[in-house]
């Protein structure tokens, strides 16, 4: 039966129990601050003192901040906040894009635990007991507000999470005497701020371009403009902090500043490198709550911190225990063992599928590419609105880039390993370096354990009934260890492994069969000896996802007669929009072999009811007509 209750969890306890547990914990917190408490947890005639907690969130930015050592940045507010607080040098989002990251920030659970929540713009299938963590604070007497972004990638009603959510939500509206937890989101650094033309204030010649970027006027101007956007955001943070000071609440408030994910320049947002995942995180502890800080003001914490740690940290600071289903490690309040690793993932980005899993320790990043036959720089319409992507792509097509700058436009290796101390741009893949054998083995084990611990739903094709926290945990539904073994074989892209993949294609479980067929896709013409097995899957498999993978494998092996028309039929007629998206994605990946069905792809680009399917079909049609480069 599906899991219906959280393992060893308190999520279902009644409100009275939650309040009693809060009062007990709150007594300890308040006592640490020097307030004399009665046995009930309250000082005579008063409620227990609790800190206000303020989240100031920016969007899509790495630490382009003076306090992080950036000499070009103009961020006096954030620099001062770091001097008065604790700066976390190695903080990372759980995904290099906002929606799955915000799922984790709201729940304390990884989005891939509740497929399809790991994808960008999806609706996670959550267990009935999973709530946004502010609900626990509200039960304990906090007034909780969100101004204004939600984008939770899951079925969360803002009214069940927040006392107030929207552009007018503010901590000042709280009942007299109530502590607050307030979130303010600032979109001045969002990716959309890079769409257009401008004359930056920051001198373009002053910025440093990463090694993977060609040195073009466009990329220099864009990077300079982004420093301007960071300066604008810094002033917005200053205004929020001034509100706190003017209300006389700064000493009673713990202020968090962080970004929802990294970015936003080309090869940052959406990509599993530090450029897409490394975020600023600064926490200032008001004078009356300085004892909860992990170190003195102005200090720097260098062990990894993950965005998944924010919910349990806030609960601990409020005197509450985090529910057992939360995956994070509290990094403030009562001292605990710091985390060793930060885990992140990439799934579908808007209309384009990919799958990466990565682990970062204090020095190294290990990346595993589960779709290595796809280039890094797959076209994403929204991202390509940024001129830098188009500039970079044109130079690659024209043969004007060096090897480092060309790498983004090519297929991936199965694994990557980077030494961030020596290579902050992550351009030298050390996966085969014998000197790092022990590091490689350690990080592989850590990632494997994480995939199993979180029951990672990312291997289940989107739209399958097996997706979701409960469905994927039903006995026998999703044999993840077997799936990992087949996927690990597939990504090696070795023709001698084809017999193992054929065996997987005959497995009783559809996810195992799917990854067997995907392994054939990755072999291109090398899958020809499996054509009969693939043809049987295409004709008879009960899973449409397995049939899509089999059709693409056949087409890439040159067997297009039946496979390409079947994909076109699926694009035209299947009832599930994600299945149609996968069908047109397969046609895009096949390339020239899909030209016989170009009119049907053009029809989908105009008539499909789903915007992402229309977008993918339009780009696929443009490639097949020769209007866009066929980068595969």
Concise overview:
The chain is an alpha/beta fold and 632 residues long. The chain has 21 helices and 15 strands.
Can you tell me about this structure?
Helix 5 (158-161) links the parallel strand 4 (143-147) and strand 5. The longest helix is centred in the middle third of the chain and has 30 residues, at 217-246. The protein has 21 helices and 15 strands. The two termini are 42 Å apart. An eight-stranded mixed sheet has the order 5-4-6-1-7-9-2-10. The protein has a four-stranded antiparallel sheet with strand order 12-13-14-15, with helices on one face. With 632 residues, the chain is α/β, with parallel strands linked by helices. Helix 15 (510-523) packs parallel to helix 17 (544-556), helix 17 runs antiparallel to helix 18 (560-573) and helix 20 (598-607) packs antiparallel against helix 21 (611-624).
